[in-house]
Write a structure and sequence with these properties.
CATH topology of the largest domain: Tetracycline Repressor, domain 2
Number of strands: 0
Number of domains: 2
Radius of gyration: 19 Å
Strand content: under 5%
Oligomer: single chain
Order of helices and strands: HHHHHHHHH
Number of helices: 9
Shape: elongated
Helix content: over 70%
CATH class of the largest domain: Mainly Alpha
Structural class: mainly alpha
Distance between the termini: 62 Å
């Protein structure tokens, strides 16, 4: 009995994840994408989608939760507490770039600012403030300004990648160099 329950739970988790991932992809391409289009992209029926997410708001909440989880993972991979804050910031930029279509959802407002504040802006602002205290980030640049510079450069990097104008291995060094030159004391 336990094995069957675990299999059902695993299948439910995979289906839910497929729906959320499809929502991220589809909403990044068109914020007005219908739930039917998301269900099709996830390879499930609309009834199945509604079993997991009764309405668009519930699905967007799940996308917001996924956003916070992926931002948290990016922070962990970047090892924000290792070394000076500027070096950690430069490790964080490529990790944020890996968020892919979630970046589009930030930039287009599909994911509300409150989600971004909870998962991304607060740790990023704390990192910049630490950089100010230790002198690794230019103290003349306001914390909010530096956070804005980072998001602006990520927007440029992601838009360039998404439009196929350059490869990731070309974009990352330019992104890191630009942010480094912008925030260095």
């Amino acid at each position: 009995m336990t094995e069957v329950h675990e299999t059902e739970t695993g299948a439910r988790a995979r289906t839910r994840r497929a729906i959320v991932e499809a929502a991220v992809r589809e909403l990044a391409h068109d914020a007005a994408t219908s739930l039917g289009q998301i269900a099709d992209a996830a390879g499930v029926g609309r009834t199945t989608l509604h079993r997991y997410f009764p309405d668009r708001a519930a699905l967007l909440d799940a996308v917001g939760s996924e956003t916070v989880a992926r931002l948290t993972e990016a922070h962990a991979r970047a090892r924000l507490d290792d070394g000076d804050a500027r070096t950690a910031l430069l490790r964080l930029c490529p990790e944020y770039l890996l968020l892919g279509d979630l970046l589009t959802l930030f930039f287009t407002g599909v994911v509300p600012d409150t989600v971004l504040d909870e998962g991304g802006a607060a740790p990023l602002a704390a990192l910049v403030a630490r950089g100010h205290r230790e002198g690794s980030i230019d103290r003349e640049l306001d914390v909010d300004w530096v956070v804005g510079v980072v998001w602006a450069q990520l927007y440029l990097a992601w838009a360039t990648l998404r439009e196929g104008q350059a490869a990731r291995h070309d974009i990352v060094p330019m992104l890191v160099r630009t942010v480094d030159k912008a925030v260095a004391p």
